[in-house]
Amino acid sequence: MKNRFRNPIMLLLFLTLSVISFAQKGPILVVDADKPISKIQPTLWGIFFEDINFAADGGIYAELVKNRSFEFTNPKEGWVFEGAFMSDSPVLILNRGEENINNPRIAQVTINGKTCITNEGFRGMGIRQDNEYRFSLLASLKSGQIKVSVKLIGSDGSEIGSTFINPADKSWKKYESIIKATKTDSKASLKLCFEGDGRVQIDMVSLFPVNTWKNRSNGLRADIVQKLADLKPGFIRFPGGCIVEGRDLAKRYQWKYTIGNLEERKLIINRWNDENARATPDYFQSFGLGFYEYFQLAEDIGAEPLPILNCGMACQFNTAELVPLEQLDSFIEDALDLIEFANGAATTPWGKIRAGMGHPESFNMKYLGIGNEQWGPQYFERYALFEKALKEKHPEIMLVSSAGPMPSGPMFDQAGKELRKYNPALVDEHFYNTTQWFFNNATRYDNYERNSYKIFAGEYAARNGMQGGKGEIKSTWEAALAEAALMTGIERNADVVYMASYAPLLANTEAFQWSPNLIWFDNLKTFGTPSYYVQKMFSTNKGTELLRITKDGKALTGDDGLYATVCRDENTKEIIMKLVNKNAQATKVDIRINSKEKGATTAKRIVMQSDDLTLNNSIDKPESIIPVEDEFKTGRGIWSLPLKAYSLTILRLRQN
Ligand code: AHR
Asked: From the candidates 71, 245, 373, 491, which is the catalytic residue?
């Protein structure tokens, strides 16, 4: 040995070989940067909006008054009427019946003196000091003179803002006034006191923050929409979920009742109203957030709108009520009319309604879902009729069909077999499953049929144990890491999977039926779960072309606890690597990028990590676990990348 090193060439050779063998200690991951293997759809990572967990009323829809039009099953739900009981009360609920079929109930106040009514809001009202609130109501003064004082009442009973209105007209008229709040309170209420001698009828009692998303008067909560916009979602699916189907057909979602004047939108009980558990027995859909507002939201956040329509079937987990095939025409008509409402010229009947609501331009809708999570022969025969009619008149619309609620098994296989007889552009698969299932299923799409419909992974979430609404917010870093592992498999198969969305999206911390969810909120605040940040890391680093990354010629799909995917962003000329280490130990991987480009040696690195797999964020600690960004030096040739235990790492490398 000693003798060999007397020769300097031998010494140099020995040192070089040592360096190489040291550098090769970890597995070498090879990236073929100049050979894109497929396009990545701009729609790949999107969001799934359903009015579950008080996501719409009591959530993103910024209305603070619960049961503003007295149309809940119990017309006084959410209201406290002062004074005498029932028929002796100065405030009565009147039903106008045929006179206003969509919104028949009103409150009638008859006084000689004073009486007050108070609305509790959705688990209270979130009010911010110095912010302005737009109060409005419809009123018709029947006789005498009545002044209405309008007060914001804090949780301690003190007044934290006020205004008044004087209804003067006999005919129904909208009265509006701004209240400036003097104090922040997450559990405020709204009190209306009627003073004078006479009779007044009221309806549509409303209170909105002035500061909504884009300051719209029938607007959305700006903080929640911002969380969605930050995801830069490729699409937004709406309005659900099971609410599309309804427990029975009478309670299905009907988009035509959700547009036009607010007071004409016909309220229904929500499919997720939880009468048995008594946790959320006051869950209704006012449709203040209706199809026009959904399209507008999609446009605002740059997402393709993907509406889902009822296909003549009520929820198969509930009544499974069916519309006979020969009576399906009006359902198909609804779909055709929706295309006209979204895309038709302002001169067409439905396009004119859209234009009248403030959007003469088309919403440029490209996708339409037929049925939610349906399965079985009844679904396929109904889907077939929709497809025939829609393809005939609108071949440009890409139809989304359903693979049912299971990600595998006979029901799923049957859907695959049957739907191949038709021409859906995408088939929607759902998988709510354990973290282990997610870690094991990063290869799920590797062997999918390439020459058939594309996949919409429309609802997925990993969970530790059962999901449920028993007061527990069930999101963990482990679940998010498992989702990240599976998502590498989705991106690696971007030629087959064109859309994917976590579900459910939103939940009110005080009124929910399902957990885990992506984003939680209370009356004033919001926080993203670890899953939210994983979604955000993928969707804001999505790239335009898929590249190959291999170890020993094979994809990284979790065999040794590592998962990886790589793409390229044609616009920014960057290579984007995503790596998941699900192991309890930190490791390092050696990487070689095969490219004719020299590339930069400094990368942007984004890492999400915690040794505590049970970690979640919360209203009070919204950033316990979030991604952290820094700069990372790569080096040339083969370079090493450290991967922390239980981590998701993203690297963005400039190519030239
Ligand atoms: O996301 C919650 C529910 O899960 C959806 O409403 C339904 O489509 C699925 O069963």
From this structure: 373
